[in-house]
Structure formats: structure tokens, C-alpha cells
């Protein structure tokens, strides 16, 4: 693992994955220490950016916390409350090809954009996948019609050995995953790493002024795109191998203790 890069530079923006980073899987609210951390970072002038594989409608509303910017759909749709920063839908021909491929495989698909998240069917792995975020996805009778709209992410239950079959015949779509029994399908020109660059450009910050916390494989490019990428203690070995440093696990309030240790916030008196 590399040493922390440019640690003397002030941190001006922090990117946070949600599931497995700010929230333990299946948990709806962060701990008191994490709420304190986010509020103190913001009070100290640090821009907070949520960076999630969840969609616009599915992003969590954390009680007492307001993020300054959002990376959703693993980077396909980035925005602030006032402005759309970046939008990159899946090519429509690839949406149709994925539907053909998954139909042949006997798999249900979930599609999502900034207006809806719907399914053409459901299976146990997809149910479990969405239950981590407390979501219950509806099977929509107008699914085919909705597929004609801009789609920013598709979700399907699968294992890594099936990725090639799922993507067969597509040209502008790729797989990103944080769980080993389902995958998010996003535009090939997207991803959290590219989204981080879009956010940094928007705010006028350099990568050396940014830090990021993550735990899943879909966070790897994000951790590489900032000055200091921090892997959670509960992250997989693949994530830890590319990170600059590591903090304690999400269950042990790793982000809080890292920020205290680095002098980004004061020790909580609570």
C-alpha cells in the first residue's frame, strides 16, 4: 500500500461511497460519530460529495446531513441541488441488447434514471441486492415503454463468470459491481473515477485537494482519482491493494477515526 500522497495539502472536498462505507449493509442511518464527522468536515469548509451506485431516487437521505454534490448511478448522473453537472445515459441500442441477452439467460432486469426505477421481473438475488438499501422495486407493466427513455443504469443478478454473456453484442456498456451476486451495468464512458474528475472540474479543485472513502470494487477508480484514496477496513483485498491508506471498518466508525487522526476534525466530546 502506498503512503498518503500530498498529505500537507488542505482537504477541500471529500467523496463518500454509501453502502459499506457510510452505512453498514442493510442499515438505514449512519452512526452518531459519522454524522458528527460529516457535519464537522462541512463546518470546516470541506465540500461533501455522495458517490454511490444507487440512483437519484434511491440515494439515501441521511438525517441531519446535506451533501453539496452527488455522484449517482456509479457516475452516470452527477449534480448539485442547483445544477446538473454530468449526464451519460446508456446507448439505447445497448439497452435493447442487454434485454435480449438477459431474456435468453432467464434473468430479470431493473432499469433506472432520474424519474423511475422499475423491473421486468424479480428474483431472490435482486431482492436481496435492493434490500441492502431498504428498497422494494416494482415490476412495471410499462417496462418496455420506459426502456425508450434515457436509462443511466441497469441491474441484473449474476456472478462474474456471466459478465461476458450479459454484455455480448454491446458496444458502450460495462459492468461494475460491489456485491458478488449482482451487477450494475453502466455506460462505458462512465464510472466513479471519471465522475470524480467532473466534480473536481466543476468546483475548481485539484485531485490533490480531494480524499475519498470506499469499500467495493466499484470504488477503485474513485480512490485512484483523488489525492488520497482510503479503503475501509471491511473492503476487499482488491480495493485495499490500490488504496493509499486504510481506515477502520464501517462498523468501527473508520471514517471518524481517520479524520480525527489526520486533524480534519476535532475529537467528539459526545
Features:
alpha/beta; Hypothetical Protein, Haloacid Dehalogenase-like Hydrolase, Chain: A, domain 2; 270 residues; 27% helix; eight-stranded mixed beta sheet; globular; single chain; 2 domains; 14 strands; Rossmann fold; six-stranded mixed beta sheet; disordered N terminus
Task: Compile the SSE list and pairings.
Blueprint: E1 13-16, H1 32-43, E2 47-51, E3 69-72, E4 77-79, E5 84-87, H2 92-105, E6 110-112, E7 117-119, H3 124-131, E8 138-139, H4 143-146, E9 153-157, H5 163-167, E10 173-179, E11 182-187, H6 192-203, E12 210-214, H7 220-224, E13 228-231, H8 237-242, E14 245-246, H9 254-261
Parallel strand pairs: 1-2, 1-12, 2-3, 7-8, 12-13, 13-14
Antiparallel strand pairs: 3-4, 4-5, 6-7, 6-9, 9-11, 10-11
Strand content: 15-25%
CATH architectural group of the largest domain: 3-Layer(aba) Sandwich
| Top-tier CATH class of the largest domain | Alpha Beta
Number of strands: 14
How many structural domains are formed by the residues? 2
Largest sheet: 8 strands, mixed
**What is the CA-CA span between the terminal residues?**
33 Å
How would you classify the quaternary structure? single chain
Overall spatial form: globular
Mean pLDDT: 93
**Uncertain runs:** 1-8
- Classified in CATH, the superfamily of the largest domain is HAD superfamily/HAD-like
Radius of gyration: 18 Å
Give, in spatial order, the strands making up the sheet with the most strands. 5-4-3-2-1-12-13-14
State the CATH topology of the largest domain.
Rossmann fold
**Helical stretch tally:** 9
- Taken in chain order, the helices and strands follow as EHEEEEHEEHEHEHEEHEHEHEH
Which structural class do the helices and strands define?
alpha/beta
Helix share, percent:
25-40%
Amino acid at each position: 500500500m502506498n503512503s498518503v500522497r500530498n498529505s500537507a495539502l488542505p482537504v477541500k472536498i471529500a467523496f463518500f461511497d454509501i453502502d459499506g462505507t457510510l452505512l453498514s449493509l442493510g442499515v438505514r442511518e449512519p452512526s452518531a460519530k459519522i454524522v458528527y464527522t460529516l457535519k464537522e468536515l462541512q463546518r470546516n469548509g470541506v465540500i461533501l460529495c455522495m458517490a454511490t451506485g444507487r440512483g437519484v431516487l434511491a440515494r439515501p437521505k441521511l438525517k441531519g446531513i446535506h451533501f453539496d454534490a452527488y455522484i449517482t448511478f456509479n457516475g452516470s448522473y452527477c449534480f448539485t441541488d442547483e445544477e446538473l453537472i454530468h449526464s451519460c445515459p446508456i446507448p439505447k441500442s445497448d439497452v435493447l441488447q442487454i434485454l435480449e441477452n438477459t431474456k435468453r439467460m432467464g434473468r430479470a432486469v431493473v432499469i433506472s434514471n432520474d424519474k423511475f426505477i422499475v423491473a421486468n421481473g424479480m428474483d431472490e438475488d435482486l431482492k436481496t441486492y435492493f434490500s441492502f438499501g431498504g428498497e422494494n422495486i416494482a415490476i412495471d407493466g410499462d417496462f418496455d415503454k420506459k426502456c425508450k427513455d434515457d436509462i443511466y443504469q441497469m441491474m441484473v443478478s449474476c456472478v462474474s463468470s456471466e459478465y461476458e454473456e450479459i454484455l455480448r453484442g454491446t458496444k458502450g456498456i460495462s459492468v461494475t459491481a460491489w456485491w458478488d451476486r449482482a451487477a450494475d451495468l453502466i455506460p462505458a464512458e462512465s464510472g466513479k473515477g471519471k465522475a470524480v474528475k467532473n466534480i473536481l472540474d466543476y468546483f475548481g479543485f485539484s485531485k490533490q485537494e480531494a480524499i475519498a472513502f470506499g469499500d467495493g470494487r466499484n470504488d477503485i477508480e474513485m480512490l485512484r482519482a483523488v489525492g488520497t484514496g482510503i479503503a475501509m477496513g471491511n473492503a476487499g483485498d482488491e480495493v485495499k491493494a490500490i488504496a493509499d491508506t486504510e481506515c477502520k471498518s464501517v462498523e468501527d466508525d473508520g471514517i471518524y477515526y481517520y479524520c480525527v487522526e489526520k486533524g480534519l476534525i476535532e475529537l467528539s466530546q459526545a
